[in-house]
Amino acid sequence: MRKLLDGTGALVVALILSASLGAPTAATAQEGASADPEIVEEAAPTTPVAGTTDVVSVPVEGDKLAITIEGSANGTVVIDLFEDVAPQHAAQLKALAQQGAYDGVVFHRVIDGFMAQTGDVEFGDSTAENFDMRRAGTGGSELDDIPLEVSDELSFTRGMVGMARAENPDSANSQFFIMFEDGPFLDGDYTIVGEVTEGMDVIDEIKRGTGPNGAVVGEADVMTTVRVLE
């Protein structure tokens, strides 16, 4: 478990920031061993997704993503991608956006005072015939996982966009999260791939999760379109 400080004091939450490609299995965090916050993560995938491929070889022009959100929140969000410090992660997000893979994907885990997580293109597509909200957050894409990319010059402050992953630090794939508040305890452990530069007020209105680990229950907010801006 991890201690998260907000304006009212210490809020203890169990967090899973992952892109595990199998059914979630929570690992046990050793409590009391350190004063630093801890993260409880899902088990890393044991088998690759069939058809796994490399990131598209043709570069996608543009260094911003425009995300249209509908639900409790309505509006457009612009994310500046940090291609200089996280080139592989930025390329992966742009490739998936260009494919339209993010269109219709839900925000499946949203923790008030912390972050909103989305990007499960495998099980989080609300337009899919077999969509089941209970599975959202346990999948990824057919592209290869990306190794951790960190920079000492960046910190998880409000509006920063990080890549979710499984226990293996080099397992980020398609899922990402947007910070509601500062979270420096994540620095060095998760890749910061970009920053919200427009529409943070829209992010603030995303429906919060009321289920275990911040899981969204019922109808979730949706990224209706995600496009690369040149």
TrEMBL record:
* UniProt KW Isomerase keyword: yes
Q: Which GO terms describe its biological process?
A: protein folding
Question: Catalytic activity, per the record?
Answer: [protein]-peptidylproline (omega=180) = [protein]-peptidylproline (omega=0)
Q: Which GO terms describe its molecular function?
A: peptidyl-prolyl cis-trans isomerase activity
SUPFAM superfamilies associated with the record? Cyclophilin-like
Q: Which residues form the signal peptide?
A: 1-29
Swiss-Prot/TrEMBL keywords: Isomerase, Rotamase, Signal
Q: Name one Pfam family in it.
A: Pro_isomerase
Question: Which top-level group of life is the source organism from?
Answer: Bacteria
Domain named PPIase cyclophilin-type is located at 64-230
Name the top EC class.
isomerase
Q: What is its EC number?
A: 5.2.1.8
The cross-references to Gene3D superfamilies, in alphabetical order and at most eight, read: Cyclophilin-like
UniProt function note: PPIases accelerate the folding of proteins. It catalyzes the cis-trans isomerization of proline imidic peptide bonds in oligopeptides.
What family name appears in the similarity comment? Belongs to the cyclophilin-type PPIase family.
For this entry, the protein name equals Peptidyl-prolyl cis-trans isomerase
Q: Which organism is it from?
A: Thalassorhabdomicrobium marinisediminis
> What lineage is on file?
Bacteria, Pseudomonadati, Pseudomonadota, Alphaproteobacteria, Rhodobacterales
